[in-house]
Amino acid sequence: MNHTKHLVKSREQIAAIRESSKINIAVLDAVADRIGPGMTTEEIDQIIYQKTKEMGAIPAQLGYEGFPKSVCTSVNDQMCHGIPSKDVVLKKGDIINVDASTIYKGYFSDSSRMFCIGTVSKEAHRLVRVARECVYRGLEQVKPWGHLGDVGHAVQEHARNNGYSVVKEIGGHGIGLEFHEDPWVGYTTKANTGMLLLPGMIFTIEPMVNMGAADILMDESDGWTVYTKDGSLSAQWEIMVLVTEKGYEVLAY
Ligand code: MF3
Ligand code: CO
User: Fold this and answer.
1) Which is the CATH superfamily of the domain at 9-252?
2) Does the pLDDT of residue 212 top 80, yes or no?
3) Within 6 Å (CB) of ligand 1, which residues are found?
4) Is 245 exposed, middle or buried (0-12, 13-18, 19+ CB in 10 A)?
5) For residue range 38-97, what is the model confidence (pLDDT) as tens digits?
């Protein structure tokens, strides 16, 4: 489908997408309040489902292309799209990405955060911190008449400067009227290239930053979970950004 003509949202659409985003933030806040050692990823799924419903919304992931749960939970060397399970019990030292998305009155939002379970190794903590910094380096590039390629470039530079790699195949996306809209937001882009950013555009910045190589490995048995090929740790944060007249507004985090 081509959503190009919808990439610049109207004032009314932006207001509605902002409301959806507030729910997504609250849902992840609810996870943040309770996550810890001994919790299963199934319990995270239940928190997400219940909180989203309580706020009058629907988890966008549930049933999306057959995804069986309301949230993706990706632990340690899992990069993304991990499926919550009662068999996955969080333990001290784990790092986990919780990726939530919301449909509210037909409008979509999407963001994800990392959580450190108990005390984690210095190396894991650094990876989680730098992955977050990468997102905000990208964000600093968002401005009207800027280039989308500047975002990816800034992300990649910061990861590389810290000795990490960024996954090439999976990127961010436009969002709002649909879950996944144009543009695709990659992180191997060059500065001064790519789509021109205009006020009213909304997209996610969500690089996966690996401690080792960037290569990915798909779990053929569940058809969803993506791992690092070399088994190294991976971290990802996702924010949802609106291009404004002056720069940007973070809608969801
Ligand atoms: N939230 C993910 C994203 O950033 C989407 C997960 S799709 C699902 O695009 F199928 F796994 F639900
Ligand atoms: Co996303």
Assistant:
1) Creatinase/methionine aminopeptidase superfamily (3.90.230.10)
2) yes
3) 61, 64-65, 67, 72, 81, 99, 101, 110, 206, 238
4) exposed
5) 999 999 999 999 999 999 999 999 999 999 999 999 999 999 999 999 999 999 999 999
